[in-house]
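Practice problem: predict the structure.
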Amino acid sequence: MGAWGAGSFENDTALDWADEVESVGDVEAVFTGLPEYDGKTDLEADDASRVIAAAEAVATMMGRVAEDVPEELQELLAGAEPSGPLIEMARNAVSRVMSRSELLDLWAEDEEGSEAFGKAITALVDRLNPDMSWDRPTKEEVEQQAGPIMPCVFCDEGMTEDNMFYLGFRDYTDRNGLFGEQGIYCHLTCLNAKLHPRHMVQNWKFDLR
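Answer:
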C-alpha cells in the first residue's frame, strides 16, 4: 500500500478501488467480501484501506463528504441514498479496521503519521454517525458538578459543549487509588491522535428511538 498521507484516499489502494467503482453495489461488495471475522486475525492493510474508502463513499451518500474523496466518485454517487443496512455494514467494517488490522501497525511505526491517521479516522467515525439530538449539559452545569473546565491537555484549546470529554484515571499503586480519581479534559480527536492506533476510542453513536 503506497501512502503519502493519512486521508482515506491518500493511498494507491483506495484510489485504485475508487477508479473501479461503477455502482453502489461495488461499495457494498467491499464489506460483504471481507474474510470472516474470527476476533484474532488482523485484516490485511489493503483490505482495510478499501474498507475506509468504501466507508467514505457511504458517508458521501449521507451528504458528509471528506475533502479527499475523488470528484469522479462523488459524481457517480450523486443522488444515491445509502440504506440503513449499508450504513451499518460500513460502521461495523470501520470498527473492525480500528480493532484488528495490519494498517494500524503500519501507521504506528510513524509517530507523525500515526497522529494524522488518528485524527482522520476519528473524523470518519463522526461522519458515519447518525444525526441525533442530545440533551447536552451546559459548561456551567458541568463546572457546578466537577469544577472549572480546563483547556484540552493536548492542543490547549478551549472545550466546547459539543466536544467536551473528560478522561479519568486512578493510581492503583496505592490502595487509596481505588477510591480517588483524577482526570484531564481533552478533545476526542486530540486523544486518538496520541493513542496507539490499536487503542483509539471508537465513539459510535446509536439512535435507539
